[in-house]
Write a structure and sequence with these properties.
Blueprint: E1 9-14, H1 19-29, E2 34-41, E3 52-56, H2 64-74, E4 79-82, H3 93-113, E5 118-124, H4 151-166, E6 174-180, E7 183-184, H5 191-197, E8 200-204, E9 210-211, E10 214-215, H6 216-228, E11 233-237, E12 243-244, H7 245-251, E13 255-259, H8 261-273, H9 296-302, H10 310-332
Parallel strand pairs: 1-2, 1-4, 2-3, 4-5, 5-6, 6-11, 7-10, 8-13
Antiparallel strand pairs: 9-12
Helix pairs in contact: 1-6, 2-3, 3-4
Length: 334
């Protein structure tokens, strides 16, 4: 009696050259249950191996939907991991909108046309918003109250709405949304690493909100779990524990510089317009009020247990940052 060969997955990854995309593809290459990986981006990921087929694709372009539907159908893709998002805010808001909001629409429409049944998307716990009335830990049922007038948030909020509509009950499709805490680690580069990488880190005078971080290795591990397990829903992906912002800055080996709120907001607006700040003034809310998420649902349903605490994520980032600082100093003083 012959045994039926085990089902092997064909998965597509948009944003294949992003930090999360590259590292997810590296894990998928080593998974015997994965038959083929379709990497989609403007540049081929350096982690691509024998299983990976690369297609040059910019999801923000008008022809992206047609091209992607063609690729997904021809490759018989069963699952799409959508990671084509910016790691930091940008003043090029029109381009960011085309990439994140319109690009997500292109990807979802292509999935509909090619009968993709499983969709995984990275999102952010910052979408809950930083508010004085926030509870200590925000569950997935809490409303998303980030400033909808800020383009950085507006595009991500729209992407979430579109993804959830794609997986609405009765559609026969599964959507897994991973709302990740700010990611830190030795290899990732984003708005948070730039903020904590400053020698003098500005904060708001009289405020010291609790923060939580997600180690870069845990972020990739959570994506891999979402691929392996058919568990639809929204999940907060966070590191264990929280830290006052001042403690995180101290652990990072930086100097805390408290500024009065009115002055800080005026200065932030000027620096943002001058392209001298890593984030728009709206993100100063997170230096004032708490925005910390509850990760219990991810543990209960997805099986995600972070390997690193919030403190360990900061320390790992700080150690790598210290080595970079030493290298830059030696290059400046040969």
């Amino acid at each position: 009696m012959t045994r039926k060969a085990p089902h092997r997955l064909c998965l597509a990854v948009t944003g294949a050259q992003t930090f999360l995309g590259r590292n997810l593809i590296g894990l998928l290459e080593e998974d015997p249950k994965v038959a083929r990986i379709i990497a989609l981006d403007t540049i081929a990921p350096d982690t691509a191996g024998e299983k990976t087929h690369f297609y040059e694709l910019d999801v923000s372009q008008p022809a992206a939907e047609e091209r992607l539907a063609e690729i997904l159908g021809a490759e018989a893709v069963q699952c799409v991991a959508h990671l084509a998002f910016l790691e930091a805010p940008t003043q090029a808001t029109a381009w960011a909108h085309e990439l994140e909001s319109v690009g997500t629409m292109h990807v979802l429409n292509a999935c509909r046309r090619s009968n993709v049944r499983k969709f995984i998307m990275r999102s952010h716990t910052s979408l809950y918003g930083a508010h004085p009335t926030n509870p200590n830990f925000l569950t997935e049922a809490h409303p998303l109250r980030a400033r909808a007038g800020e383009p950085y948030f507006a595009d991500k909020l729209q992407a979430e709405r579109d993804a959830l509509r794609f997986g609405k009950p009765g559609s026969g499709r599964s959507v897994t949304l991973l709302r990740m805490a700010p990611i830190l680690g030795p290899g990732v580069q984003n708005a948070i690493t730039r903020y904590l990488g400053r020698r003098a880190v500005p904060t708001l005078l009289g405020f010291d909100p609790l923060w939580q971080f997600l180690h870069e290795a845990d972020a990739v591990a959570a994506l891999k779990l979402a691929v392996n397990r058919d568990v639809a829903g929204i999940y907060n992906i966070v590191g264990q524990g929280v830290l006052p912002l001042s403690t995180a800055i101290k652990l990072a080996g930086r100097v805390n510089v408290p500024l009065p709120s009115p002055f800080a907001r005026s200065l932030a607006r000027a620096l943002w317009v001058a392209h001298l700040l890593e984030a728009p003034p709206a993100l100063l809310d997170y230096l004032q009020y708490i925005c910390v998420a509850d990760g219990a649902a991810a543990e209960d349903h997805l099986g995600f247990v972070p390997a690193f605490t919030t403190r360990e994520a900061v320390i790992d980032f700080a150690n790598a940052q210290h080595l970079r600082d030493v290298r830059l100093l030696s290059e400046a003083n040969p």
